[in-house]
Specification:
The chain is mainly alpha-helical. The protein is built from 4 helices and no strands. α1 packs antiparallel against α2 and α3 (100-124) runs antiparallel to α4. 64% of the residues lie in helices and 0% in strands. The longest helix is centred in the middle third of the chain and has 28 residues, at 45-72.
């Protein structure tokens, strides 16, 4: 096995790569289950579609790629929470149900945190294939972040921070 050789697949993952990939995988598995729950709470067709889309096209492939990477490198996988059953929003009492605005803001925050995690992994990677994998995930998250931002603006769910007005 060549350390920092020309064949990156024969290079071991460093401890930072293993730890951060493992941690990111654990969060992604939790997010998948959280989105199953949040999907049960929304009555909005656009938001429900977005949740299904991001789960199928971002979270599931990301989980699979990280699991494969860790397995190929002899690392243990984090546990996965159990899947949640589907239910209709009207079966959840209104006081216990998340609003669509709360759901959208939760997903938006998850996207921001995942972007930061991906950037960290890209920055600490010594293997190009790992950096490229997370750069791909990062690019996809940026696209979905744009879709979520547009949806939140259109629905009036975007919570703006105070604007800085200098009237000097």
């Amino acid at each position: 096995m060549g350390i920092l050789s020309r064949n990156q697949n024969s290079e071991p993952l460093n401890y930072g790569e293993v730890f951060h990939i493992w941690s990111h995988l654990l969060k992604a598995k939790g997010c998948r289950v959280k989105y199953q729950l949040l999907s049960n709470h929304t009555e909005g067709k656009e938001l429900k579609k977005f949740i299904q889309d991001i789960t199928q096209n971002i979270i599931e492939p990301e989980i699979k790629s990280m699991e494969n990477l860790l397995r190929e490198n002899g690392a243990e996988l984090p546990p996965a929470p159990a899947d949640k059953t589907n239910c209709e929003p009207n079966t959840i009492p209104s006081g216990a149900r998340f609003t669509d605005a709360e759901i959208a803001n939760c997903i938006s925050n998850d996207l921001k945190m995942s972007l930061a995690d991906n950037s960290l992994i890209i920055g600490l990677s010594t293997r190009e294939d790992v950096a490229q994998l997370f750069a791909l995930h990062h690019t996809q998250l940026v696209q979905y972040g744009g879709k979520m931002l547009k949806l939140m603006k259109n629905k009036g769910w975007l919570v703006l921070p105070p604007l800085n007005k200098n009237d000097v």
